[in-house]
Every structure is written in structure tokens, then in C-alpha cells.
Amino acid sequence: MDKSALYRRIAEEAGRGELVFPTRAEVGLRIKRLLDDPNCSIEPLARLVQAEPLLAARVVAVANSVAYNRSGRQISDLRQAISRLGFRTLRSLTLSLIVRQLAEQSADADHQALARRLWEHTVHVAALAQVIAKRVTHQEAETALFAGLLHEVAGFYLIARAKGMPELLADGAADWQQEGEAIVGEALLKVLEVPEAVVTAIHDLWQGYLAIPPNSLGDTLLLAEELAPVPSPLYWAPPGAPEAGTPQLEIMLDEETLTSILRESADEVHSLIDALK
User: How is the chain split into domains, by residue range?
Assistant: First the structure.
């Protein structure tokens, strides 16, 4: 079976709700369902988050990062951390954990290493997207963080399914962004009930057209992707292409430049990256 047929098969399975989630992702799915309840409160949320130690640790770490802890007061209580972050950020962290766990279920060492590199790329893009949204494109920062954490959802699912379909990673993944993202990614974003604004931004990222001056959520992701110092291991760069983290243009924004804005925000970006890892 060729790759195009495999992509369509996976997308059809996802459309029927036949997503292959690891058992440990069930807690994350329960948290997502609870967050979708308009009457949700912190107490039951905290109890569920505590059942997933990695998520609990990440929630506290992000709450103590420079991006969310302007006062400098460190906290260790999970309920306080959830209150500081808010339900929207908790939803972002929960879905990103589920996505990451998709690929981590593989017993193949090469696939696990690929997933780790993809996650490192993802957290750089997410952290940069949040700062760019606040300082450059003036989009909602939490939505930008969410979009950054989910922009590689199709790639993680590709790795997760590669054990039973080794053809998916045969000859690298050079064709993935041209075809696989559009087919599989579309189905996954729908099944995970990702908000339409984020879906549109991820579509814009796939298409790769950056507006000048950048002003949309899609532009936010495109800039973050270009500036991320860690490239996606699923992206094939043609010979002579610029290295990751070296933007091809310097965007002037009023009296500031993109470079100066990111330099001023470096502590915030690095703190959030460390927390998300």
C-alpha cells in the first residue's frame, strides 16, 4: 500500500473515532471532558490532574515560569497552579500531553527518539508563539500557546502508527508535510474538537504564506516555526535551505524589530520551554 493510501486509511479511521490512544492517555481524556463541562470546578480537576504525575508536574512548572509568574512567588500547590494558569491553559497542556503520549507508546527506540525530537521542536514553537502573539501579532496569547502545542499533532500520530505501518516512515518523511498533514491532520483536529480559530491557524501554517506585517494567529505560528532553533525531524529541507532559527527576513514593527522584541522576551521564552519539556 502506498503512503497516500495509508494516509487516507488513517484519516478514515480517525473520522470513525478509531483513534489508537495509549491506555495512560485515558486520564488526559477524562480531564478534557471535565474541562468541556461549563460547570467544571477546580477541586475535581485537581484530583484528576494528580492522577497523571507528568501533567501535574508540568502544570506547576508552567505556573512558576516567567510567563505566568510575574510576582516571582513560587507555588507548589496544584490547586493554586491551576488557578494561576486558568482552565484554557490547562486544556492546552492536557491535550499536548495526550498528543505526546500517542508516540511514546511505541516500543521502537528509533521512533521514541523521533518523538522526543518532535516534542522539543513543538515546545519551542509553542513558547515562541505565545510571545509573538503578545508582542507582535496581538493575538490571544493562550490561544497561540495552544496552537503551538498542537501544530504537530499529525506528526505524533504518524509516529504512533508507524509500528504497525512501517511504510509510513520509509525513506524518511519528506512527503509528510505535502500530503500527510493535510489528510491525517485534518481528521485528528476534528476528532479532538480543536477550536475553529486554531484549526484555521494550523491550516495557514501548512500553507506557509506569511503576511507582512504579520497579524493573524496563522502568522504567529509561521513566525514561531521559522524562528524555532530546533527543526521538526519530520520536515525535509532542500539543499541550501536556511538553518532552523535563522529567519530569512527582519520584520520592522513600529520602532522595534522582531529580533529586538525576541531578545527582550528571551527569559520568558526559555522559562516556558523548560517548563514544557
Answer: 3-276
pLDDT range class, residue 248, cuts 50, 70, 90: low
Mean pLDDT calculated for residue range 93-111 = 80
Sign of CA dihedral 98, 103, 107, 112: negative
Residue 252 sits at φ, ψ, to 5 deg, of -90, 130
Identify the CA nearest to 276 among candidates 135, 34, 96, 110.
96
pLDDT at 171 over 60: no
Select from 124, 104, 128, 123 the least CA-distant residue to 114: 104
The pTM for the full model equals: 0.86
- Measure the CA–CA gap between 3 and 175, rounded to whole angstroms: 9
Q: Tell me the CATH architecture of domain 3-276.
A: Orthogonal Bundle (1.10)
| Helix 42-50 vs helix 78-85: crossing angle, to nearest 10 | 120
